[in-house]
Input
Amino acid sequence: MNEITNLKVVKPKLIEFPKIGSSPLGYISVAEKKDVSFDVSRVFWTYYTPEEVIRGRHAHYKLEQILIAVSGKILVDTECLDSDPVTFELSSPNVGLFVPAYCWHTMKFSHNSVLLSLSSIEYLESDYIRDYEVFRKMKLDYGKS
Output
């Protein structure tokens, strides 16, 4: 049996973080250990992404992440090894999307969107699955198990 057939697939899911404050004062949201299913090893943010650009276009072997639209709206298309594509809309700064390993994802940004990512491992190029045909083959192999 190969490595793919032994995988336990985890699905992407929305996580709502606490929203503390009020309209006249403003708000703060906090992500604590109890809210995140992994230790955060890397934090990055993406901004000034033109609306016609599609980012992502990859999956990871190990990395898990939580994506948060701290500003604007971001559409995230996801596809797991065992399911059809699902689209999530991130448009509230207190809601994040958990993206597990082996989940192909693409992102489309509205004007002036800012995406924050909490990642489980530091950047490692060898962790990326950048070729959709490779991912599709993995998905077919997983489906045979």
In short: The longest helix spans residues 132-143. Helices lie at 132-143. The two ends are 9 Å apart (CA to CA). The chain has a mean pLDDT of 94.
